[in-house]
Amino acid sequence: MHVGFMQPGSVSELHVHEDEVESMYLISGELEVTVGDLQFRMRSGESYFAPRNTLHRVRNAGTAESRSLFIGTSCRFTCFSQKPVFKREAETYLFFGVPTVIHLSGSETGKEFSLLESYMPGGGDSGLHVHGNEDECIYLLTGELEVTIGDSPFTLKAGSSCFVPRNTPHRLCNKRVDTARAMHLNTPGTLDSFMRLAGIRIKSPVEVVAAYPSPDQIGAILLLSEEYDFQMLIPPGM
Fold first, then answer.
1. How many CB atoms lie within 10 A of CB 215?
2. What whole-number distance in Å separates Cα of residue 141 and Cα of residue 158?
3. Which has more pLDDT, 95 or 218?
4. What confidence tens digit (pLDDT) does each residue in 119-129 have?
5. Residue 131: pLDDT band by 50, 70, 90 thresholds?
6. How many CA atoms lie within 13 A of 42 on its CB side?
7. Which DSSP state fits 169?
8. Residue 88 region by backbone torsions, left for phi larger than 0, else alpha for psi between -120 and 50, else beta
9. What is the model's pLDDT at position 32?
10. For a FRET experiment, which of 38, 41, 43, 75 has its CA 20 to 30 Å from that of 169?
11. Where are the beta strands (DSSP E) in 105-226?
12. Dihedral-angle region of residue 167 (phi above 0 means left; psi in -120 to 50 means alpha; beta otherwise)
């Protein structure tokens, strides 16, 4: 995962990746993109997925420098069909109290990864939890987060990233007033299926709803957690 910058009018040559798939999330700017047979204009907050051996090209069609988050993975799940994807409309869920957008799901990337964006409000807390099936990479877009990975606490600032191996306890806390926005890359792409079942569908990340699952909801979520090998070791706020 890396961040790319493109000046107005500049263009990448039409090219393919033989050994990896590629996805891009547009942080800022405006791009004209070709991915296979798809041609589209991207605005900030949108994303695409390009399977390996798929011709693609990007051009900065705006008047300002663009900033993009690029993801490349090594095609471990070639048994699943993959096709180009451009996402303009994304689903948003309240997941353990944190509004989270599913930009690219495992079903859209052939299980290679899922690309998520969290909006953690001031005082928000993910709780100490473990993913048994997925590695996770986090890139902070805005704000500041207090992060604990295993026994190592540190402060994650905007423009910085961290990696959480599967089966490693970790926790994200926003001790500031302003909302912290972060991109989450989970490999393989299986966490979003759990999020759809355990979360609450909301219209947008700024919709105000109850922050944490109710006592009536938590029992069913714990059963789902076992199925998806997700453990909440210490709930948010505790």
1. 6
2. 5
3. 95
4. 999 999 998 99
5. very high
6. 29
7. -
8. alpha
9. 97
10. 75
11. 114-120, 128-131, 135-142, 144-149, 152-157, 161-164, 170-173, 180-187, 200-202
12. left
